[in-house]
Amino acid sequence: MSTNSPATPAATHADDILRLVDPAGTLNEQAAAGMLDVTDELVRALYRDMVLGRRFDQEAYSLQRQGELGLWLMSLGQEAAQAGSIRALRADDRVFPSYREHVAALCRGISPAELLSQWRGASHGSWDPERYHFHIYSLVLATQTLHAVGYAMGVRYDAGDSVVFTYFGDGASSQGDANEALNWAAVTSAPIVFFCQNNGWAISTPASKQYAGPLSERAKGFGLDAVSVDGNDVLAVYAATQRMVERVRTGGAPGFIEAHTYRMSGHSTSDDPGRYRDSAELARWEAHDPVERVRLLLTARGWADEDYFAAVASDAEELAAQTRQECRAIAEPSLSDTFRNTLCEETEALRREREGFETFEESFL
Amino acid sequence: MTSTAAAGSARKDAQDKGSTTTLGRALNEGLRQAMRDDDRVVLLGEDIASLGGVFRVTDGLAVEFGDRVVDTPLAESGIIGTAIGLALRGYRPVCEIQFDGFVYPAFDQIVSQLAKMRARSRGLLRLPVTIRIPVGGGIGAVEHHSESNEAYFCHTAGLRVVACGHPQDAYDMLRAAIACDDPVIFYEPKRRYWDRAEVDLGRPVDGDTVGRARILLEGADVTVVAYGPTVAVALSAAEVAAAEGRSLEVLDLRSLSPLDTTELCRSASKTGRVVVVHEAPVNVGLGAEIAATVMEHCFYNLEAPVERVGGYNVPYPPARAEGDYLPDLDRVLDAVDRVCAP
Fold this sequence. Notes:
The structure holds two protein chains of two kinds.
Chain A: E1 17-18, H1 29-33, H2 40-65, H3 79-86, E2 95-96, H4 102-107, H5 112-120, H6 129-132, H7 143-157, E3 164-169, H8 176-188, E4 192-198, E5 201-202, E6 205-206, H9 215-222, E7 225-230, H10 234-249, E8 255-260, H11 279-286, H12 290-301, H13 306-329, H14 335-341, H15 348-362
Parallel strand pairs in A: 1-7, 2-3, 3-4, 4-8, 7-8
Antiparallel strand pairs in A: 5-6
Chain B: H1 3-15, E1 21-22, H2 23-37, E2 41-45, H3 61-65, E3 69-71, H4 76-88, E4 92-96, H5 107-114, H6 117-120, E5 130-135, H7 150-154, E6 160-163, H8 167-179, E7 184-189, E8 196-197, E9 214-217, E10 222-226, H9 230-243, E11 248-252, E12 255-257, H10 261-271, E13 274-281, H11 286-298, E14 307-311, H12 322-325, H13 329-340
Parallel strand pairs in B: 2-3, 2-4, 4-5, 5-7, 6-7, 10-11, 10-13, 13-14
Antiparallel strand pairs in B: 1-8, 6-12, 9-11
């Protein structure tokens, strides 16, 4: 089992992986100096994003266990990869997520109800992508990477200066669509950055069975500019993303960021990680916790005191309560609406089917 | 002009090449006009720019429209996937799939992404993507170049599926498909690319051309339902049948999904006999849906069971055997005989 286990960032490719804050909360001043203006406000804001995102995820997990959600895909452990990347984008940089980007979605202002609707079985996607510049989730792996490239081609046609940003994972990297997207982006010089959250596992399949050469190297082979980053180091993710996105915004080749992180939960609430990975691996990664190292940094620098941490914790509890409340208030879906939303205008055939369904339902009243 | 006269004049015009347009050229003009009318229309496909497509349907468009005609990497899923992204950005992509048998690598992007995205977004998103597919056999091609796969897409909610059968419809329907806010699978009968007829290039966009079936030839005894490449077969059958004293009505479906059940049932009720002709295998093909629809709505007006004439339930045969596979004049007339049997 251990031979397949994903190594922590410290143990592999250490020289190639950007890290600014180590697990003990020590900031590498020299490395940071060239990349990022590390301010106390920035670090506090990212810390808060991560704590809130984690608490939200925890509440959603509980809601699933209590029967309020049909399924939940946990984001535990990937807070730094998501908060660090989304916060480095401009608000109008269009995001094409996969399905685990809850922390990033919350950062964009998507509400708990909008995020939970899909998993409660009330919709297949409930937020307005235009409002948040954040597309609805894609459940078929890597399909969204091609949508992102097409959208970026449109940005290029419009001579726009926004950058398209797409999330996917180590498992999705094996899909044809991911590889078509990388190639297509490079060939068209579309303004896009691919962000791979390499969390080590695709349900039960370890990254070692997914690919043989580093994903960032593969991206370079396609002609993209690629970097690797410690995905559990929110400042490194933020710095790498900011640098890559701004380079693309000013006409650089499409970018690829591989964030080495770890899925600390199972794939979903239907998963049982005990069948395929040992607890020692999780323990190793817990020592690389993305939230804890920032708390240590804030404390060591005197950038946050106990009152601040208590206030963030309180906000997180408030979000959890709001999440629970909103979840139970999500409106039940209507099959009649689905008929109306299948095409832009309800066709005669759809109307006939809908009316037949409605007449049948009404016959029971 | 009556429908009968239109069909007759199309045949006459075919002999007068000077003033006629091929179906392929009509599509080309349709694309050109759509691109002139709306600068959000962009074309994506393999070999469509400098070559003009393997059937030359996009001939010359790259010269006029520059980077709005994109020679894509050779990746069908990528063509549809990026078209979806362009549509989300406000563009109206028109994709060319080089041959019918090459659409399968894009199946997920069409069926799970393109078709469902509007419903998934609860009606917020529009996906005005047109997917042009040369369809069917009869040109002596190698394998994967002669397939009729419309049933897969007709079975998918969220898509419109249409097939043009002659040059004027090719022009009108393509413009209407591009103007439509829904995803449209647009089938082009590849063995008819070189068919000629007079084409009015001045017609306004008419959504009915991709929504309504049309009677091409009025008749009293049997309704022959056809679309795409079999429209011409049906018209020929009608001509021969007429000489034998039988009056066939030829219904060109044009829209395969949704079906124009009103026109279909009106004709079926009138004649009481229906023969459906398509190149796709009869097994679970569109003809089954048509037969069921006719039975549900016209049962008491029918004089005979609906007959289906189409491909057999085998992989498309090698070119030298395709003549036995494709529904031709004789097979259609044989079916007509069966539905007319006392």
